[in-house]
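S1.2 Input.
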Amino acid sequence: MSRTRSAQSDPSATLRGGLPDRYLTPDDIAEIFDVPKETVYQWRKKRTGPPGFRIGKHLRYDPDDVHAYVTERRKTDANAA
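S1.3 Output.
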């Protein structure tokens, strides 16, 4: 539980210290990556960001998928450098 609270107080620590043990909302993703929520929706539309899924009308993100996305981006950026 303390891991989730510390992640909420410092979004950048979320990716360093581990993601919460719950599905993430678009607001969570925007906070974690420090981007506007509209950017999160554009990533989904263009299929360029972490993969999301719908539960009814609600968009959610699996923390494992977000972590895998960040790991893949790091590898891509390291290979480009």
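S1.4 Remarks. Confidence is low (pLDDT under 50) at residues 1-7.
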